[in-house]
Model the fold of this input.
Amino acid sequence: MPPIKRHFVFCNGAVNCEGVTENDQDKIYHLDIYDLSDESLIKVKLPNFVQSVYHLPDRILDLLEIAAYVFSADRLISRGAKDALEYHSWSRYLNFTVKVRDFEFWQAEDTKQKLSKALEFTSGDFKYSFSFQPNHSTPPTSLFDREDFSISREEEDVDIILFSGGLDSLSGIIEKLETTDNKICLVSHRSGQPSTAKTQDKIFLALQRDYPNRLNHYKFHCSLRKSRAIEESQRTRAFLYTSIAYALSHAFSADKMYVFENGITTFNFPKRQDMINARASRTTHPKTLALISQLFSDIKASKFSIKTPYLWKTKSDIFELIKKFGQEKLISSAVSCSQAIGDKDATHCGGCSQCVDRKLSAYASHLDEFDDLGIYSFDFINQSFEDEYIKTMVIDYIRQAINFSELNIDFFYTKYLNELTDIVDFMPGQPEEELIEKAWSICSRHGQQIIEAIKRINYIHNDPAKSNTPNSLLDILSKKDYLEQPLKDELDRHLESQLDNERDKPTSPLAKLEKLSAPKPQLTMQTIKIFLASSSELEDDRKEFEIFISRKNKAYIQQGIFLEVVLWEDFLDAMSSTRLQDEYNKAIAECDVFVSLFYSKVGKYTKEEFIKAFGAFQSDGKPLVYTYFKKLVTEVTRADRKKLESLFDFQDELSELGHFQTEYANIEDLKYKFGEQINKFLPKLTGD
Done:
């Protein structure tokens, strides 16, 4: 591997004391916010921002300058080609020398380590190193730029919120405005791209109109001069953005800020093995924000928090929240893409990961009519992929979502162990098992939502009278080869790996001899399929039931038994020329156990599923059928009788059939009762 090139960045007129010279491996840059000449590489309007808050102390001014220099250097220095897979191709060595005002604080080894650690993780770069020089000073920005002046604050709570102009931050702002009486201060970074500024201003004016006297908007301008950025991955933008918000928090004497970003984007689990290092964005990852908040707490000399209220929400959930508060009209105004260049009408390129996530999530939440209003320059659903990189990225996104919907919590834990460690270690105060379960749950829900999106895309766009555009998403979906990744295969690979580990353990010569003469273990796994049917009103119980079965599998896998829960979400209507319910019925017949949950109503299809299962049991003795009725919370009156008619009629039918039905009080009661049944039927089904 060739050596990683070093980039030396001298800021605020810092002196090259070590005599670094440029050569094949070393590159030198000089950046100065206050250099207004034509040779200056960057444009940062720090004085304008300070004027908007009257005064900021030296240490925070230093922070803003450092963040601006880091972000500017990040954009000036290339990582390499996007198809380069090697670590060194996407990883950089950046060395900053900065003149500062509060030299004693910044030069402290602990401060430098925290700064480097935060930037190395969020950027994925090889190394960030810092050295500082004293005696930096700048004149006051106005007559009010003094310690005895501050923003006039009434006795009311103020929420500092990062505002990019995207859907997640828009939803968070709307939710705060709808559910609190707090004053909202929005913080935006202006990178010199006119469309971004236009988007932010348009949304702010719309919100100001709907929520008068509730919002203020603070903008920090930081951009390159003369030419476009060489590197637009912008992995260090989070540091700049949060630094601006932290400065505003200080001005308002606040001890926290809010970052609204959905959990799927935040965690950004790798979609393929070569998605390593800087490829996997970590801008709002819990580790990134924890490391940055530690630095901010040191600057403040007291605890400072970065809140992430949408950590356990998906992008589809975000769409639903905007709908909940009746602000669908703002969806098309929000911009999630930073790469839409060249099309005067489109605000989104249509081919980046943000666009793919947004578009599919809009379909999943049935809000595509508010999103797909000519804002995409490329329609990956109907148009042919000309860029193989974009095609691969879209396929990887959908494949991962489907895998998420199939993985139980144990396999999820095994597959993403390294990524989960970074999450758990930087979210103290919450039990590890609870965090892992939450991460699995949001990924599983995201997978189910994207499958729903695929169903709707097929339903809306797939015209049986016309052939699909070759190499379009519709064409790819019609083949479906890449969707076939059975969970059983993953299980077998997992068991094979466990056996390999056992074989590799050091043993004595005698033990080795005994091992060689012993019969080789057989990788056999008996799968017991459990079909779970319920109405939408018991969605939470259904999810808890699946978690319960996943935990049971920890013990059963060791015995060569795997309990597979089959849910109605597991089927795509594109997979059959007959109606989707026929696919359900076919799956029911192939299952070993059928479980149905009921509460206040019995839907047509849930009843049909039961009849199919019960009929198969009577003729073939399979599947075993269990019905559970959740106890109604209140006593039933005559007025309720009509509303509950379908439930009572179905219970009467069960009695006539001589089928035993079980009542449960809550999810724990259901787990206990079905757990007892597992102990009874498992020996019979496995032949033990």
Remarks:
- The longest helix spans residues 432-461.
- The chain has a mean pLDDT of 82.
